[in-house]
What does this fold into?
Amino acid sequence: MAEAGIFFERRQVPGSTLVALRGNWQVESAAALDRALTDLRRAAPGAFRFDLADIGGLDTVGAFLLLRTARSLNASLENVPQHFLTLLEHVEQAAAAKDTHPRRRHRHFNVAEWLDHLGTQVFRIAATAAALLAFFGRIMVTAARVVVHPSRVRGVALLSQLQHNGWAALPIVGMLNFLIGVVIAYQGADQLAQFGAQILTVNLLGISVLRELGVLITAIIVAGRSGSAFTAEIGAMRVNEEIDAMRVLGLDPVEVLVMPRLIGLLISLPLLTFFANFVAIAGGGMLCWLALDITPPVFLDQLRSALYPLTFWLGVIKSPFFAFVIAMVGCHAGLSVERSAESVGHFTTMSVVRSIFLVIVIDALFSVLFSQLNV
Amino acid sequence: MSDPRPTDGQDNGHDAPLVRVRGLVTRIGDRTIHDGVNLELRRGEVLGVVGGSGAGKSVLLRTIVGLMTPAAGSVEVFGQRLADLNDHQLHQLEARWGVLFQDGALFSSLTVAENIDVPLKEQFDLPHHLLVEIAHLKLSLVGLAPETAALHPAELSGGMRKRAGLARALALDPGLLFLDEPTSGLDPISAGDFDRLINDLKSSLGLTVFMVTHDLDSLVAICDRIAVLVDKRLKIGTITELMRDPHPWLQAYFNGPRGRAALDGKTA
It folds into this structure.
């Protein structure tokens, strides 16, 4: 093999094969060296002798490959240059340490393993649910303590949460809900025009926005915006052992970190929902005016006749529940982060997915409840 | 000191210093950290850099490996001025030195073995089985058990993280090693083991070592020369030379109770 010529030359001498090493036995040529030595091992049987007199460079990887080959061929090393002696000795000691770590087997698909995997997943989901429930309990206990001693609420932290998760979310929440209002009115008008009932677009807009869409869209935006921030912030603190430091200092992470975020979101999400409802109806109203010639006074009259006083509250009442779930899931995921950067990303993704899932589940439960109550 | 790696010969002659720093000035914001630092790191020596907390030892290390840009002065490594190199040349140069950061700076999402393979994969195209074997060899060289290979950095103790970081720094068999406080945070026994490890590796791999440290015992045990950062400049010499220096910080450092204890241990 041409490649092998760079590293050694084989000569048959009486009684054995003499391999004269040359060139650089270093990590940059490790792949070629490994191939050449494997070929050599497969070649003629018999006694081998390695002559190192003319070797150029040698580093730990080269020494490792040389010693490995020499061991498997039962070969001797000759004319080892003085300055490589300690290196070879060191590498030989190091390579002697046995690897007891089990190799990962290549996995084939089979039904039993698939079932096993499925079962593991189910149990993991159950365990997560149990952990969330336990965390819910901890929050409740802490909340009770805070209610008894309101001075335990950290005022500055709470204000900063209101700033980040309420005030700063206004532009995005406003813009998206405005567009939703426009879209609903536009699509509704298209369909209702077939019955000559374009004016009912106002009813459609008012009821769907106030009862469902305003609060749901806002909760989903906040879950993506603030829920992920909760997980990442608290998770980064976990990686940095700050949470442990808090515990040691006698601070309760639930009280210091979770409570301000929870209370902040409980205040800001209903306010954001109110704002979202207003903007979505304004967006729909603008479309009605421009595209359907329903003037603002007519629009407001129609809206008033379409809505019960309760309609607005049936939407807004859900927002504290959504806020609670988003804050709880986000903070819990943050506290579950393990000490690696990858784990922060993993739990942040999971926190957003879980909180949006739970928000929609709770919304569905409310629908069932409200229909049972006939409201 | 003879050089066991005669082929590592792209440098300007054998006796040229591996690192040469001249007139170095560094600033962070408007604070001057170094003001005219000169330094030569000779082939095959272990240079210990000491100085008070905040004196700029780590900044000096970071400037030499190109993580920080000096405000004035020049840094040459392997005879090449860092400021003159383009990204590609700098990349090639970086393969020839290894850096051990204070807490190992292992990539937290990779296992220890994968951490060691990062520079190997970056520089060379090696088959998988060879990567596994090399990672195990390096682990064993720094005195870690093979089982460590599959662990994540978060599962290691502080001392193990330093050893794993050293294994990664040694992945490419560099001739030049930068260590940032290799023994800080270790118990005295582990610290002594680590000193011996550096010494062993130095003699078998022919390493040249630039070591930032607080540890007087390390200085005594393995450093050939010592560089002291005082008043934004370096004073370089052997321990005995520096002990005679009248500068108050040096007097307090070497002739204080801890300094005396470490030095007595050497002569005893």
User: Anything to note?
Assistant: Chain A touches chain B at residues 24, 26-28, 30-31, 34, 56-61, 64, 83-84, 86-87, 89-91, 93-95, 97-101, 239, 338-343 (CB under 8 Å).
